[in-house]
Specification:
The complex is a heterodimer of chains A (734) and B (225).
Chain A: H1 6-11, H2 16-26, H3 32-41, H4 44-47, H5 52-55, E1 65-67, E2 74-77, E3 82-90, H6 92-97, H7 99-115, E4 120-130, H8 138-156, E5 160-167, E6 176-186, E7 201-206, H9 216-219, H10 240-254, E8 259-264, H11 269-281, E9 284-288, H12 301-306, E10 312-317, H13 322-331, E11 335-343, E12 347-352, E13 355-361, H14 362-367, H15 394-402, H16 411-414, E14 425-427, E15 434-437, E16 444-450, H17 453-458, H18 460-477, E17 481-490, H19 497-516, E18 521-527, E19 531-532, E20 539-540, E21 544-553, E22 570-575, H20 586-592, H21 604-619, E23 625-628, H22 633-645, E24 649-652, H23 660-665, E25 671-676, H24 679-688, E26 692-699, E27 703-708, E28 711-716, H25 717-733
Parallel strand pairs in A: 4-5, 9-12, 17-18, 24-27
Antiparallel strand pairs in A: 1-2, 2-3, 3-6, 4-6, 7-10, 7-11, 8-10, 9-11, 12-13, 14-15, 15-16, 16-21, 17-21, 19-20, 22-25, 22-26, 23-25, 24-26, 27-28
Helix pairs in contact in A: 7-8, 7-10, 8-10, 10-13, 15-25, 18-19, 18-21
Chain B: E1 5-9, H1 16-27, E2 32-35, E3 47-50, H2 70-80, E4 85-88, H3 90-97, E5 104-106, E6 114-122, E7 138-145, E8 149-151, H4 154-162, E9 166-170, E10 181-185, E11 191-194, H5 212-224
Parallel strand pairs in B: 1-2, 1-3, 3-4, 4-11
Antiparallel strand pairs in B: 5-8, 6-7, 6-9, 9-10, 10-11
The chains are: A alpha+beta (734), B alpha/beta (225).
Chain lengths: 734, 225
């Protein structure tokens, strides 16, 4: 009698064509364990079946790239025999269902991806998208996600130093929680996942396996619906205390020469870790399911293989090292069990109570995995803006903008994160890039997560470029040399050609930017099916390819910050042209209710030149403050610099500009606002590089005073600060 | 003679390295790292630090399980002999749970974790830890905690204030602590527990260096003695 019915197959998220592939691979009908394994390995989440075709085209190489995509995280050379190891990953669906645990385990998972490779995690960042603040669920979601990220990161002792948060109604029913971890390792102590050596023991360490998170990967690969609350039991529960012990135990063992290969148990748990380790090493694997440490009695092999219990790792050890390794894990009060061995069969064999419960060839699991070149249509070009609104009172509009959800101070969020544990944090959230000293050196890592989804929605190609360019700019603005990026590609249902068109367009833009900026992609994650009917919206999220950039400061004493430092410094706008671009701007959307017009164009050769110039000026000590000019344009950049430095500014529109709103709130790309006590050499350097420079005004006083043609307006810093801090304060404490 | 200090690591401690780095930075000598399961402390210690973190994941109550670690018996004995003991953040929680200091640390009044630099007023400038400051001086040191809301009965608080055992007070709204207490000393003045992290305000890369004087004074006093 067959236990596999068409309903069983459908419940595992496989379509008929995919099930036929399973039958073909096995030459027989699978049992339930085998079907479960195929289903998770071929889920969108694990197999990247809709995206793989396009991901292959991304630029991933540079002389400083030690390991690109395909391992647990990307690895780059940061000099002196050291490496930075980093990745970003999504935990969107679980965070909507159970925000605290969803976000917490998202942090836990990405941390494991990084320390699995031998790195001590030194920084956490995140990229969050929420729906409308007045959506009935949103306050609860924001509170839960923020406390979940803090609850996990604070406890494991990794500082959360940066991130970004946006609000838009497109995320009402499907928020995005993307977490990034950056770690530092010695280049001769980097660990990979390929299992080798027939007979080598396979060891399970960490927490016990429970019944939580079964089918989490499958859930992450489908649209949301009204019943998503019923999926709460598929959300895993995190234990950051165990993770902290696991980090210390793994790093202690990694300091010896006992480990052949190591992989964390993330999505699809024991299944994906064991299959990936064996596949990468082109070996077989035999596991005795009776040896798996279980939290509950009576767990079946099916449950053990599909559980997504957290804080677990799988390792292949060198023979004879078992006792030494076990002593380390026992000291840290963690489970340690030899559960199997590497074989030369190329098959995955599982036994339970003496019986074989799974016997499948590994090659087809990887090689025959479905791959789709899904139909895609190009996003139509947006019409140029007509009836562009003007501003008659720049200071008043600036004050309003500083209080909008997307521009308001995020202090309420980042004060809930321990941003300083490690005592190496030099810049946390609130500036451009976060900066963390490489412990015990003069070097520092600069890191930033960025994406402007409204640009990606209006123009996926320009939006994809812009996301990469903005991280490049943020890292340059602190004086760091941008080295490489990770990404987290959040899109809606890829089976819809217009969504697939957004995906393809964004990837082309990202690719182009990474090539032009010499800034390869070394790791990443794709999250599809981010759309929900849960709130009656039936809506897709905005295309959100979040980019996490990492750069290096060779000498951290040269670091720049956004804060004005002195009264009487000149303020300049340098880099790209000031074309008064208001299409898709925050000004147009939040003050005039119009999400219209084309996204700003990103000139990559200007980005590169401007970045190189800014870094050189910072290294030469020529600038007293530097800030990327982004959301909200020049006026918002100046206001942020003034608030950070508690020093005001007098700024004016140059004579060749015609629109005050366009000049002060336009979102043209490739620009930096800088201050200096010696403007002339800076102006000469900018002009010498063939870039645009505008003398905007000077620092001083306790207000922002703005002149545009004959119009004068002014706002006190105290008023701006109150506007900026009132959004979260009133929302959360009101 | 070289300064001989120890930093205790409990499972879940996460500021142990930071404390060790700060002590080495100021004293020039690396502290001895001690595991919570050890039964004895190294001989001849001049200074013992209990670092911040989440010992045992804050399960049960912050600091409660760590206070019953084997090593804590030895720390209590050393404190009784007059060895200076500094507990920061989770270390403060452990010291109250071990009853080396009075009072308890409850969940922050606002219910959320708080990480920010705060202004502190120095209330005692005569202990080995606080002698490098002036009474009434305002210093800035970061806090990072979820359970820093200091509680003790009025009798106990009156006694602490009367005996000069309040070391630091918050100069701004922070976590709901009674009488804004941020750090307390024991009667003998050789045990200090404080929620703010002086080890995060020691080097020029930190936002400020107001924590440095605490370590400098302790080291100076001990080396001189």
């Amino acid at each position: 009698m067959s236990e596999i019915t068409p309903e069983t197959v459908a419940a595992h998220g496989l379509n008929q064509e995919e099930y036929d592939r399973v039958l073909n691979a096995l030459g027989r009908e699978p049992n339930l364990v085998e079907l479960g394994i195929f289903s998770v390995m071929w889920s969108e989440h694990c197999s990247y079946k809709s995206s793989r075709f396009h991901l292959k085209k991304l630029p991933t190489k540079a002389p400083w790239v030690i390991c690109g995509p395909g391992e647990n995280a990307g690895v780059i050379d940061i000099g002196d025999g050291q490496a930075a190891i980093f990745k970003m990953e999504s935990h969107n669906h679980p965070s909507y269902i159970e925000p605290y645990q969803g976000a917490a385990t998202g942090v836990g998972g990405i941390l494991r991806d990084v320390f699995t490779m031998g790195a001590r995690p030194v920084a956490n960042l995140n990229a969050l998208r929420f729906g409308r603040p007045d959506h009935p669920k949103m306050k609860h979601l924001v509170q839960g996600v923020v406390s979940g990220i803090g609850g996990y990161g604070n406890c494991v002792g990794v500082p959360t130093v940066g991130g970004e948060t946006n609000f838009h109604k497109a995320y009402d029913g499907n928020i995005l929680v993307n977490a990034m971890t950056v770690g530092v390792a010695d280049q001769d102590k980097i660990f990979y996942s390929a299992a080798t050596g027939t007979g080598n023991p396979i060891v399970y360490v960490g927490s016990k396996t429970g019944r939580d998170g079964i089918h989490g990967a499958t859930m992450a690969s489908a649209d949301f619906d009204e019943k998503s609350d019923e999926k709460r039991p598929t959300v895993q529960v995190g234990d950051p205390f165990t993770e902290k012990l696991l980090i210390e135990a793994c790093l202690e063992l990694m300091a010896t020469d006992a480990i052949v290969a190591i992989q964390d148990m993330g999505a699809a748990g024991l299944t994906s870790s064991s299959v990936e380790m064996a596949s990468k090493g082109e070996v077989g694997i035999r596991l005795d399911m009776n040896m798996v440490p279980c939290r509950e009695e009576g767990m079946t092999p099916y449950e053990m293989m599909l559980s997504e219990s957290q804080e677990r790792m799988l390792m292949v050890l060198k023979p004879g090292k078992e006792k030494m390794a076990e002593d380390i894990f026992r000291k840290w009060e963690l489970d340690f069990a030899i559960i199997g061995e590497v074989t030369d069969t190329g098959r995955m064999e599982l036994t339970f109570n003496g019986e074989t419960v799974c016997d499948i060839p590994l090659a087809p699991l990887a090689d025959d995995a479905p791959e789709y070149d899904r139909p895609h249509v190009k996003t139509p070009k947006r019409e140029a803006l007509v009836d562009v609104p003007e501003s008659t009172d720049i200071a008043s509009d600036l004050t309003k903008l500083m209080g909008t959800p997307d521009l308001a101070s995020r202090k309420w969020i980042w004060e809930q994160y321990d941003s300083q544990v490690g005592a190496d944090t030099m810049q946390k959230s609130g500036g451009d890039a976060a900066v963390v000293r490489v412990h015990g050196t003069r070097k520092a890592l600069a890191m930033s997560t960025d994406c402007t989804p409204r640009y990606c929605y209006a123009d996926p190609y320009e939006g994809g470029k812009q996301a990469v360019a903005e991280t490049y700019r943020n890292i340059s603005a602190v004086g760091g040399r941008p080295l490489a990026v990770t990404n987290c590609l959040n899109f809606a249902n890829p089976e819809r050609p217009e969504i697939m068109g957004q995906f393809v367009g964004c990837l082309e833009g990202m690719s182009e930017a990474c090539i032009e900026l010499d800034y390869p992609i070394v790791s990443g994650n794709v999250s599809l099916y981010n759309e929900s009917k849960a709130t009656g919206g039936g809506s897709a999220i905005l295309p959100t390819p979040a980019i996490g950039g990492v750069g290096l400061l060779e000498d951290h004493s040269k670091m720049a910050t956004i804060a004005f430092k002195n009264e009487g410094d000149a303020i300049l706008v340098i880099g790209g042209e000031n074309n008064a671009h208001l299409g898709q701007s925050i000004f147009l959307r939040d003050l005039h209710g119009r999400e219209e017009g084309p996204a700003p164009h990103v000139d990559l050769s200007v980005e590169r030149k401007a970045g190189e110039l800014v870094r050189k000026l910072i290294a030469d000590g020529a600038l007293s403050a530097v800030h990327d000019c982004a959301d909200g344009g020049i006026a918002v950049a100046v206001a942020e610099m003034a608030l950070a430095g508690k020093i005001g500014a007098q700024i004016g529109m140059p004579a060749d500009q015609t629109s005050p709103a366009g000049f002060f709130f336009g979102e043209d790309q490739g620009r930096y606002v800088v201050s200096t006590n010696d403007a002339l050499p800076v102006i000469e350097a900018v002009e010498g590089a063939g870039l645009t420079v505008v003398l905007l005004g000077q620092t001083g006083g306790d207000a922002i005073q703005i002149s545009a043609d004959e119009a004068r307006s002014s706002v006190a810093l105290a008023t701006l600060r109150d506007a900026s801090e009132s959004f979260f304060r009133d929302w959360m404490e009101g | 003679m070289a300064f001989r200090s120890a930093v205790i690591t409990f499972p879940g401690s996460n500021c142990d390295r930071d404390m060790a780095v700060a002590l080495e930075n100021v004293s020039g000598t690396a502290p001895i790292r001690v595991w919570h399961g050890d039964a004895a402390l190294p001989d001849g210690l001049d200074f013992i630090a209990l670092p911040g973190g989440f010992s045992y994941g804050d399960y049960l109550r912050s600091g409660a399980m760590a206070a019953r670690s084997p090593i804590m018996q030895a720390v209590v004995e050393a404190a009784g002999r007059g060895v200076p003991v500094l507990g920061v953040c989770n270390g403060f929680q452990v010291l109250t749970e071990a009853q080396l200091l009075p009072g308890a640390l409850m969940r922050n009044a606002g219910q959320t974790f708080i990480c920010r630099e705060v202004a502190l007023i120095v209330e005692n400038d005569s202990s080995i830890f606080t002698g490098g400051y002036r009474k009434g001086q305002t210093i800035r040191i970061p806090v990072a905690h979820h359970d820093g809301n200091y509680f003790a009965s009025d009798d106990v608080l009156d006694r602490l204030e009367g005996e000069g055992q309040v070391a630091f007070r918050y100069a701004e709204k922070c976590n709901g602590s009674r009488r804004d207490i941020a750090g307390v000393l024991n009667e003998q003045g050789n045990v200090l527990g404080m929620m703010p992290h002086p080890e995060r305000a020691v080097e020029t890369i930190h936002n400020g260096t107001d924590g440095r004087a605490l370590f400098e004074n302790a080291i100076k006093g001990l080396v001189a003695a």
